[in-house]
Amino acid sequence: MIPLKDRNPTQKVPVVNISIIVVNIGFFLYEVSLGPQLENFFSQYGMVPASLTSSLSTFDFNFFTFLPLFSSMFLHGGWLHLGGNMLYLWVFGDNVEDKLGHGRYFLFYILCGLAASFAHILIEPLSEVPTVGASGAISGVLGAYLLMFPRARVVTLIPIFVFIQVAELPALFVLGFWFVLQFFNGLISLGYETGGMGGVAWWAHIGGFIAGLVLVIPFRKFR
């Protein structure tokens, strides 16, 4: 299922959500310009679990040890990777920002991204594969949206074999199905050396989603 838009109007312009999308696109265009140097760029600014766990275990760390935890959130491995992530962020992020406020939303987004990275590290602490993508942080946004707007209608593209159906479905169904799919794939991926089939960090998605469900409660409570 591919969400196209929701029937959930906002009161404020989602300046932070739009800015995050623009930054992600900007970084990706820079990646494209790197050509054969892209692999080294990912190794340096992508999140590599083995590098982080090794540095922490020997207490040999500095600013650049933790930088990939943040920089990896704004990097992507291809046009489809970028497009899919930005679509989900565009559809669901504006309403979460509308509820939390601009500053709180940005902090919430970053914390969900960090939680997603730590979830992936927990499952694959020795992986030397650089992890890139905004998926973990966006998963947190999806968790928050599900908790706050479970009955919101989402215009969804549903491919059924060779047929394509467009339907309005409640967010509870769309995002609930998404999470079940991530969890199922995450269970299957356990034991794989790269922590996922096709290099997908399923447990980062799961960790980010759960973080979003949990963190949105205090973020809303004090607003």
Give a structural overview.
- The chain has about 220 residues and is mainly α.
- It has one domain: Rhomboid-like (Rhomboid-like fold), CATH 1.20.1540.10.
- About 65% of the residues lie in helices and about 10% in strands.
- The chain has helices spanning about 15-35, 40-45, 50-55, 65-70, 80-100, 100-125, 135-150, 170-190, 200-220; strands at about 1-5, 155-160, 165-170.
- It has a three-stranded antiparallel β-sheet.
- The protein is globular.
- The two termini are about 35 Å apart.
Strand content: 5-15%
Q: What is the 3D shape?
A: globular
CATH architecture: Up-down Bundle
Q: Give the termini distance in whole angstroms.
A: 33 Å
Q: Average pLDDT, to the nearest integer?
A: 90
CATH class annotation: Mainly Alpha
Order of helices and strands: EHHHHHHHEEHH
How much helix is in the residues?
55-70%
Largest sheet: 3 strands, antiparallel
Give the tally of structural domains. 1
Structural class, by secondary structure, is mainly alpha
Largest sheet, order of strands side by side? 1-2-3
The CATH topology annotation reads as: Rhomboid-like fold
Quaternary state of this entry equals: single chain
Give the C-alpha Rg: 17 Å
At the fourth level of CATH, the homologous superfamily is Rhomboid-like
Contiguous uncertain segments of 5+ residues: 194-198
Compute the number of helices.
9
How would the blueprint of this fold be written?
Layout: E1 2-6, H1 15-34, H2 38-45, H3 49-57, H4 63-71, H5 79-100, H6 102-123, H7 135-148, E2 153-160, E3 163-170, H8 171-189, H9 202-221
Antiparallel strand pairs: 1-2, 2-3
Helix pairs in contact: 1-5, 5-6, 5-7, 6-7, 6-9, 7-8, 7-9, 8-9
